[in-house]
Design brief:
The protein is built from nine helices and four strands. It is an alpha+beta fold and about 240 residues long. The chain folds into two domains: about 110 residues, Glutaredoxin; about 100 residues, Up-down Bundle (Glutathione S-transferase Yfyf (Class Pi), Chain A, domain 2). Helix 1 packs parallel to helix 3 and helix 5 crosses helix 7. The mean pLDDT is about 95. Belongs to the GST superfamily. Pfam families: GST_C, GST_N. This is Thiol:disulfide oxidoreductase.
Length: about 240
């Protein structure tokens, strides 16, 4: 059994997508980040960066005790190696998947995240910041669209590279992007959205968080919790 410490964010969706694809047994432990549950000592013991997702595998392959992992990219790699799925064994194909997974972790996720923040959540609308992140998101969409021009998925077959990127493209409208400008990316998005495991993963989000799909910031207290963090929260 795997404990999944989860909330309904793009990084959380990556892991439920993988788990639903493979049928691994798991239990969701909700971490309501709007209420500050990510700062509880029991969660910090698993995820010292106070960010979801994190997992505890109570039966790790080749291990003798439970294994905890934080960071969504590391979790995807671990689960792929545990199951032997969605990560090829051939060295060329394997590192093609890994490099595109890291591309999402280092590029698409952070840039789209800052895009969301300055465009939708920041109380002070700073034109330079908005333009900077909307344009960089646009560039990254272009990179992905070009990559998908001659293949169905990011690294050929469906893989953790697709699961990593998909949740960050779902919110394209909130990122100021027109998907019609990226036809290959649009086709890819629709293909993954139609997968039964993706449908199940996003249905779970609605069960866990009744406010899923609504604005993430509804009160000033939530704003302070999510955007007012300093080192004091982990001391």
């Amino acid at each position: 059994m795997i404990d999944l410490h989860y909330w309904t964010t793009p990084n959380g969706h990556k892991i439920t997508m993988f788990l639903e694809e493979t049928g691994l047994k798991y239990k969701i432990i909700p971490v309501n980040i709007g209420k500050g549950e990510q700062f509880k000592p029991e969660f910090l013991a698993v995820a010292p960066n106070n960010r979801i997702p994190a997992i505890v595998d109570h039966a790790p392959k080749g291990g003798t005790k439970p294994l905890s992992i934080f960071e969504s990219g590391a979790i995807l790699l671990y689960l792929a190696e545990k199951t032997g799925k969605f990560l090829p064994t051939d060295i060329y194909a394997r590192y093609d998947v890994i490099q595109w997974t890291f591309w999402q972790m280092g590029g698409l996720g952070p840039m789209a995240g800052q895009n969301h923040h300055f465009r939708n959540y920041a109380q002070d609308k700073i034109p330079y910041a908005i333009d900077r992140y909307v344009n960089e998101t646009n560039r990254l969409y272009g990179v992905l669209n070009k990559r998908l021009a001659d293949r169905e998925f990011v690294a050929g077959d469906y893989s953790i590279a697709d699961m990593a990127s998909y949740p960050w493209v779902v919110g394209y409208q909130n990122q100021g992007q027109n998907l019609d400008d990226f036809p290959h990316l649009k086709r890819w998005l629709e293909t993954i959205r139609a997968r039964p495991a993706t449908e199940r993963a996003y249905a779970l989000a609605k069960d866990v968080n009744p406010n899923f799909g609504k604005p993430a910031i509804r009160t000033e207290e939530e704003r302070k919790i999510l955007f007012g963090q300093t080192a004091s929260v982990v001391r």
